[in-house]
Amino acid sequence: MRCVHSLSRRPAALFGASAVLVVGICIAVLRSRAFAANPDLAAWGITFDLTISLPLLYWFFVVRGGKARPLTIVPVFLLGTMLATALIPHAQQAFLRQLGRVVVPVAELLLVTALVGRIIAARREPNPSSDPYDRIAKAANTLAGEGVMANVITSEAAMFYYAFFGWRRQPPMRERAVTFHERNGWSTILACILVIIAAEGLAMHLLLAQWKSVAAWCWTALDLWALIWLLGDYQALRLRRTWIDDEALHIQYGLRWTITVPREQIASVEEIRNESWKRKEILRIAILDAPRWKVTLREPLVARGLLGLRKRIVAIALLPDDDSWIANLTR
Hints:
single chain, eight-stranded mixed β-sheet, alpha+beta, 15% strand, 10 helices
């Protein structure tokens, strides 16, 4: 009874439990004799449950109670559609293909339009943030409410923004700012990685196409996503720089980690002489090479990462492109 009462007070958890139950039933039906006896009708029912029933459950448990915005139903529908595509045999996906041709593009367009509208509105507000990532996060929170869905939208939208629209932008002018990707030649290494992904992707596409065209295009889509993520991450590393002011150390490590450390929370800054930084509660801000400096905190703080990931840390291990910058922390 306590478990049921606890779930009733947590709409998101109640929806999650209901969604797991619905998906479990759908999988059981797919493996049953009933599906083998009448696959077309069973596939229609499973498609309906995953693409219609799940969003309705989300609305009933989460949106109706004011815990999320109505537009957040769109990502739930898209996730249900993706799940149905993965589970239902291709021969029985007629209803799913009809939804894909009509509803999915409309849902995606609605979500993107709403997000862009919120971002533009955020730019027009008094004293808007100079960081596009912050504006995207604010727009996503306004659109989807604070939570996992908003974090996912923020990460994906920021990735696309920096990958496609960050090339001509210049980083904000700050006197005590630093990057972490230049000293090891990350741009050259990244170029090599992109060439390898492109070559490997073409070869795998041709190989998989001989077996199944859907698998070939799925592999290609994953490669394209990886290319976009790497490009967005590089531009974010270039544009979202870490800086120090009189109040705090502002860590902006591309799209990977963000945390603000008040100066009074910095206990010590020391050069790393062993591997003591290799601990779970220490945030590593370095690409490829080992970090050189460790900033120890007086009290644990929480860093924000990709997709809303949270990490409780007691220290930060750094490898800045300019070692002289670290002296600013001790002033």
